[in-house]
Each structure stands twice: as structure tokens, then as C-alpha cells.
Amino acid sequence: LYQTYVEVEYGYGAQWGFSPTDFAGDFLGATYFITQHYVPALEDFNLKWQYMPADWVGERSVRHPTAVVDDYNSSTFWLSANVHNLLPENLKPYWPSWLNLAIGYGVRDISYDDATLGPDFQLPKRRFIIGLDYDFVRLMPDGPNFWNWVRQGMNWFKIIPAPAISF
């Protein structure tokens, strides 16, 4: 619902405009979690968000972001696959149940696409990443309800670094 509000707000903005593809992405992202409940095969694929301030890794952050969700240069979106569950039974002993494989997508220099910036002008760049990821529900011990809620909530974010290759 929040992203729908953002897309409608962009529709009234002089510099942006409503984006049907962004709205479709918002809708698909929200319905994915519901679909996982009804399609068991999708339970092995989780969406995650990673926020790493761009200036921490030598990149430029969005000029004047109003909120963390507006800093596109610092966000990466991941699809994390539970490899252990996808392997045939004879190969499962060779892959830890808590270790996932993830593909990520992010951008850099997205707010620096204005040629009037002179020497600072740079076209936005897409980033595709393949790397390892962790399943906190399987990695961390079971416990009381609140603790289990925390473990499950941690699986929505990619918060611990893992080896990856960026393209």
C-alpha cells in the first residue's frame, strides 16, 4: 500500500510521472508472499532487501534522499534460493541446509543522470549479483514465539555479508 501511495505521488510530480511498470512490480512483490502460502514450491525462494549506504563502498548516494527507501543507489533486491531443499536426496548431505544461493539487482548513480551536472554527469548503472546467503530460520536455534518471529523477520533482509560476484 505504501508503494502504491509513492507511485501515485510520482504521478503528480513534475520530474517523474506515474510508472505502470513500477506499479506492477509493487503489486507482484506484495502478492509474492501470499502466493508462497498457496504454492508450496515457491517457499524455497525468498525475496530480501539489502541496504548498504553507497558512500560506505566508495559509490555516490542519491542526492537528498528523503528516506532510506528513496536511496536507490544503496539498495539491492535479492531472490534467495534454498539450494538444500532443491537438491535430490543423495546430494543433500553435501550442502548445508542454512546456506542459500541468491541473485541480486541494484543500481548505481541513478540520480546523476542529468547532463547539466557537467563533470559529475554519469549514466546510471545496473548491478547484477550472484552470491551466497543465509537462512536464519535454519541457522539460528528454535525458541519462544518472539525469538522465532525475529528469526523469520531477519530472513527478509540480507544483513550479513557473504561472498558474491557483481556484474
How big is the Rg? 19 Å
Extended strand count = 5
Q: Quaternary state, please?
A: single chain
Distance between the termini: 32 Å
Order of H and E elements: HHEEHEEHHE
Structural class: alpha+beta
List the helices and strands and how they pair.
Blueprint: H1 2-11, H2 20-38, E1 45-51, E2 75-81, H3 83-86, E3 99-108, E4 125-134, H4 136-139, H5 145-154, E5 164-166
Q: Can you put this structure into words, describing what you see?
A:
- A five-stranded antiparallel beta sheet has the order 1-2-3-4-5.
- The protein contains five helices and five strands, in the order ααββαββααβ.
- It has helices at residues 2-11, 20-38, 83-86, 136-139, 145-154; strands spanning 45-51, 75-81, 99-108, 125-134, 164-166.
Compact overview of the structure:
With 167 residues, the protein is α+β, with helices and mostly antiparallel strands. It is built from five helices and five strands; from the N terminus they run H-H-E-E-H-E-E-H-H-E.
Note the main attributes of this structure:
alpha+beta, five-stranded antiparallel β-sheet, 22% strand, 167 residues
